[in-house]
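Forwarding these from the shared drive since the link keeps breaking.
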Amino acid sequence: MTLLKKIISYIYPIKIAKHPSERSGSLEVTLVNGKLVIDSKNANYSYGSLQQVLKKALLQIDEKKLQSLSSILILGVAGGSVIKTLRDDFNITAKITGIEIDQKVITLANTYFKLNKVANIELVIIDAFKYVSTTKNTYDLIIIDLFNDAKMPQELFKNNFWRNTHNILTNNGIVVFNSIITSTLNIERNEQLATRLNTLFSSNKRLKTHTINELFILEK
């Protein structure tokens, strides 16, 4: 990547690559403000606004608790920006298990962001809902960031998924859940979810950011 391209990218985005994906539609790697990002047709997948959204959620967690983590589960890896945030911005060295259903986006992450060079991570290509219902592992922190383009799977709002998630969370463990609100129906959906989560978790903090994102920060 040349210095000239980086400079031009501050004026307008430069498309670096475009790849079709059966799961996510068209995926584009674009140079924006000197940095590479991955976008689907209607949403940022990694290293753009999404990275800042999840970083704000992590900043809400006690620093000592973050540093004491020994196991982290990420549902929805995409380009791996939250993994880089955990490693680079918070200096967290805990084992990270990343779950991603789309092999194509992992290929892009490895090619353009060297995700496969990050230490102490395991990437598993599997449906996240299947994983949480079958794994025997438990985790201190679970980050849920599951989208298909700009749409959220309906399974995210079902009781069974949250019971499974609660079951694989260690005592006093934390869940960060990123949701999108773009309509009155979405607001009502999240209110109903919050009521159900209050019966499962001892703490349920909600944080609105970047206009359409609402984050749930839950503690067991």
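-- next protein --
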Amino acid sequence: MKVILLKDVKNMGRAHEALEAADGYALNFLIPKKMAIPATPTALKEAELRRKQSADRSLVDAALVAQGLATLAEAHIVLKRKANDKGVLYDAVGANEILHAAHEQAHVELPIDAIRIEKPIKKVGLFTIPVAAAGTFGSFTLTIEPE
């Protein structure tokens, strides 16, 4: 059965993509869970239009992210947190806090999943924070100082 995906489906395809799926899988899983619709001529035209709009939007998003990364590369973000005498923070600094600080200090809007730290930061010091969003990669410097 030919269907059009409404969402990205793992091991099948991306949203707004027309593909062939097994009848049972399409009728019993994809369509009832609103992950796909039957591929009618009208639905195919709408899917093509949405795919083009999505591609245009992603180009604009990529340009904005690249501009934000260039601004962040020049900026130096500073956070002040409570720490003990050995420089260990009482509360770890996560991606949300780093993103919020980048927005406040450098006026940069990035999606939350753009900050690529493996685990929250738990020490005072100077850190290089990797950023990856919309196919654009970069990094910026974060300093965590004790209060």
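The CA atoms of residues 59 and 134 lie 8 Å apart. The mean pLDDT is 88.

- D.
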